[in-house]
Hints:
Blueprint: E1 10-12, E2 20-23, E3 26-34, E4 47-54, E5 59-69, E6 76-83, E7 92-101, E8 104-113
Antiparallel strand pairs: 1-3, 2-3, 3-6, 4-5, 4-7, 5-6, 7-8
Amino acid sequence: MKPHRTPLASVKILNSAHDLKRRDGSFTLHYTITPALPDAADDSPVLLALEAMDDVGNEYFHWGGAYGAAGDGTHTSGSISAQPALAAKACEIRIRLTFLRGGEEHPCHLMLRTSAAKP
């Protein structure tokens, strides 16, 4: 039996209009992680991968991103982009963010409404 491990991080998507940004050919998800990810200089680096599918059936894959710890060390903020561009008719997108560290995967599943969603 494997020992119980605490999660790498809890992921909280900020509640603002800037969480999911459409771009030509891609979209970008901005996120905040609490507690902050470890500093790569002090510990093994954390890699982030994104896979997603919208409610119309389109699939999306990560295309790069960046993150950094807040000055006070309480959280990490970052962004990750995916391709292709988010379908205009998509109202919801299911996203799987996978944090990879030391050979272990730590997935996080999200459901986000897009700007095409009806109020």
